[in-house]
Amino acid sequence: MRHCFFLSLLTFTALTPVAAEGNSTHTNEVALTQRIEALEKSLKDLKRQVNGGKVKSNPQSPSSRKDASSITDDAFAKRMEALEKDLTNLKVEVRSQKITPSQSQNSTVNDKGFQYRVGGRVRLDALYDTGSKGALYGLNPSTLPLKNIQAEASNHGHINAGVSSSRLLAEVSRSFDGLPTSAYMEFDFAKDSSDTTTSFSPRVRHLYVKAGGFLLGQTWYTFQDMDSFANTLDNLYGGSRQPMVRYTYDVSKCASLAIAGEKPNTEYIGNDGNLHDNDQYGKSQLPDLATQLKLKYLHGHIAFSGVIRRLQIHVPKAVAGLTDNFTKTKTGWGLGFSGRYNFYKKSGLMWQVNGGHGTGRYIDDLNSQDAYLQYGAGITPQFSIIKAINYIAALELWLTNDLAATLAASLTHISKPKTSLNVVTYNTTQRRYHTNLIYNIFPNSQVGIEVMHYQRRAGLQTKNTGKDTRILSSFIYNF
To answer: Distances in Å between the alpha carbon of 354 and those of 87, 256, 316, 391?
Structure first.
């Protein structure tokens, strides 16, 4: 039980910094705020008692009279010193984890018992691509232009800047008949963003309600372990979101089990080399079923994840080259093992191993590749789910309370479908490396610089390579 108590405290310190796309800090900010407010109240009450020269007690209680008379000025001083130390340590912890005081303290309670807060961040990114030009919002290794195949691959050296990863958020909570409930929404400005315009449209990142262990709305995939992604300034890397209904059961203070039905989508690569989904011949008839068991221990956590899916295709015979309808159904599945180990204070190691058949978007670097479909005149129709495995390893070092360095690598291997045609853009391997320094220049502001190298190898018979190295700097102001 004593270990579980310390584990519950460590859940607050295992948060991904706000600069990362895989950030899940908003789920813990209210609890951290309550801890700070409780300590401040205790300290204020104690100082009031000292200044008044007495202890508030029940005069009818013999035990209270005894306790009051035995407390000396030295005891008060020691108690105040301990509270001030705890409060200072907690605020340092909050600041170092990039949950800023301005974010944590802007909660308000109205006369109906609603607790609400608003906040967000303003972020300015400036970048330079040494290789082929990547997108402004983030660098996707699965779509890098291929050398000798795509003209964009020779477009070397490109400077860009943007604010599309700035965010707005709002959260409200209230208990109804003793049942705690909350709702959360978060937007950024990445919708329809481009490299040439400074006008950005809002995009929903998170939008959900929580009550009684249930979550209904859009948030991080249940399959993904958000606390095991490396800290990065890349806006695309480190988790994705979709609509779902999820139930989380706390088995103990050290273990939780989440089960969810999530939005389905059959996404496949055609023999034309393009990525398609339900808007063409893909069908979705059942939700994806995902689960995750997370176990917390003194120095971190481990997690086991799983997902099972129904992938279906229907190509009508009216399509050129087919003499009959082509309908196939496949079962996709994925398994994941991940975790974090803090070997010194907040410095730690992170890892992930995710793999399966038809895992698709549940592997972060796979870019929704669930299956392969080929058809046409003189071609044997084929619908094959894609086998893939992904390895992630990262080292995070806190050099000071305000300066963190990260070194991370990711490797994804994708299998070749049987009897497939030569698709020159079909990825077989993807690699990602990044290192960064992120510094808290103020309690609510960070600056960072990151170097990323991304590479893909594509082609089923003839292999081609696409790669880029990006230097990215960011300034982030949290409010």
So the answer is: 40, 20, 35, 7
18 contacts 121 by C-beta, under 8 angstroms = yes
User: What are the sequence ranges of the domains in the chain?
Assistant: 121-478
E-strand ranges in 415-463 read 427-442, 445-458
Helix, strand, coil share of the chain (percent; to 5): 20, 50, 35
User: Which residue, chain included where needed, has tokens 């306790």?
Assistant: 67
Give the chain's largest Cα–Cα span.
97
User: Which candidate, 290, 292, 371, 389, places its Cα nearest to that of 339?
Assistant: 292
Query: At the topology level of CATH, where does 121-478 sit?
Result: Porin (2.40.160)
SS3 at position 87: helix
The token duo for 416 is 């070749």
CB 226 within 8 A of CB 205: no
Distances in Å between the Cα of 448 and the Cα atoms of 20, 47, 320, 407, 467 are: 11, 41, 53, 14, 23
**pTM surpassing 0.70?**
yes
Length of the chain: 479
Contact (CB, 8 A) for 351 and 409 = no
**Token code pair at residue 198:** 């400074």
Positive or negative, the CA dihedral 293, 295, 300, 304 is negative
Q: Would you state the pLDDT for residue 414? A: 92
Chunked mean pLDDT (size 10), the chain, 479 residues: 40 36 44 66 66 45 38 61 68 47 53 84 94 75 84 84 93 91 94 65 94 97 95 86 97 96 93 86 94 96 98 89 90 97 95 95 84 87 93 97 96 88 87 96 95 90 87 96
Tell which phi-psi region holds residue 377, choosing left (phi > 0), alpha (psi between -120 and 50) or beta: beta
SS3 state at 46: helix
What is the rounded CA–CA span in Å between residue 31 and residue 41?
15
Bridge partners of 126? 161, 473
Token reading at 306: 């799983």
Tokens of 350: 């992170």
Distance, in Å, from the CA atom of 254 to the CA atom of 367, rounded to the nearest integer, reads: 33
* Core vs surface per residue 159-183: b (16+ CB within 10 A) or e: ebebebbbbbbebbbbeeeeeeebb
* Predicted local distance difference test score (pLDDT) of residue 111: 58
Per-residue pLDDT at 96: 44
Q: Give the separation between CA 277 and CA 242, rounded to whole angstroms.
A: 15
* CA distance linking residue 96 with residue 214, whole number of Å: 30
For 26, the 3-state DSSP assignment is helix
